[in-house]
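Narrative of accomplishments. A recurring question from our advisory board has been how the design workflow behaves on a single, concrete structure rather than in aggregate. To address it, we present the structure tokens for one chain from the evaluation set, followed by the sequence designed for it. No filtering or post-editing was applied between the two.
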């Protein structure tokens, strides 16, 4: 029997693609800390690799950007650049926590820029996500390193604008990611030339960051956000800071604290709820 609502297929798979993207994003903190290069060098390498990878993967993304694609590319470039710089200037916990204030900015800007008003479920789940996020970092968030914290907040604003822009562009959003990575690499080039020579391990880390943590992840996110409201996409992306300490523990032996475990549990439950909600709704409609 044919589905009377064919868009439901994309609506059901969209959140899972975003969760897969967030899982790849979550490897950034440990990888950046393990890399001996400067933030500018890391961003140059990973953004250049990601741009080439996505341009080869999606030939249509190579087209010259128009104004709409260009503005989203700028937001994307500042998102990835500021996040790397924040990770080098403050703790990974601070950088991820402050960047993941993005859902607050999306809640405020989505009705204005996309004319998408948050659903009651999204409004109810947003505080749950944020409480979980706050608990998660209660035993790790440090008050120092003010410059890095400010950079991380700016990265969160840029990430919110990036989510809204990718959602609005629809099928053209991969082009914005390709050009955004190219722009981020170009912006990093002057400062990156002053850094030290990379080791073999540094090169391997940068390749991983470019191909998987940035390239593949944003390809998944770009597809998923087409079928997922901007507010929900930004909330689902909060699984990233939950998984980040897992990789940190496995790679560096850093064990998450008790508050991190409690906060992570809250976010995982809220994420499961928001992910399964579309599937449950479609089942209810099918029965009706």
């Amino acid at each position: 029997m044919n589905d009377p609502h064919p868009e439901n297929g994309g609506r059901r798979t969209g959140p899972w693609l975003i969760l897969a993207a967030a899982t790849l994003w979550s490897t950034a903190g440990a990888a950046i800390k393990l890399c001996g290069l400067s933030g500018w060098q890391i961003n140059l390498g990973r953004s250049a690799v990601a741009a080439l990878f996505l341009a080869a993967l999606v030939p249509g993304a190579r087209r010259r950007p128009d104004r709409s694609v260009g503005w989203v590319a700028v937001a994307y470039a500042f998102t990835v650049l500021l996040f790397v710089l924040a990770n080098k200037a403050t703790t990974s916990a601070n950088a991820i926590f402050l960047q993941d204030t993005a859902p607050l900015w999306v809640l405020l800007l989505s009705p204005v820029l996309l004319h998408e008003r948050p659903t009651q479920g999204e409004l109810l789940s947003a505080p749950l996500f944020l409480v979980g996020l706050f608990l998660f970092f209660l035993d790790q968030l440090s008050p120092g390193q003010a410059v890095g914290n400010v950079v991380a907040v700016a990265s969160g604003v840029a990430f919110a604008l990036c989510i809204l822009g990718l959602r609005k562009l629809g099928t053209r959003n991969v082009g914005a990611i390709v050009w955004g990575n190219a722009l981020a690499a170009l912006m990093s080039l002057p400062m990156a030339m002053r850094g030290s020579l990379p080791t073999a391990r540094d090169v391997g880390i940068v390749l991983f960051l470019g191909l998987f943590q940035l390239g593949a992840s944003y390809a998944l996110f770009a597809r998923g956000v087409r079928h997922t409201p901007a507010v929900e996409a930004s909330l689902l992306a909060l699984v990233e800071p939950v998984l980040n300490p897992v990789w940190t523990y496995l790679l560096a032996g850093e064990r998450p604290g008790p508050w991190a475990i409690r906060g992570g549990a809250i976010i995982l439950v809220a994420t499961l709820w928001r992910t399964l909600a579309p599937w449950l709704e479609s089942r209810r409609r099918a029965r009706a």
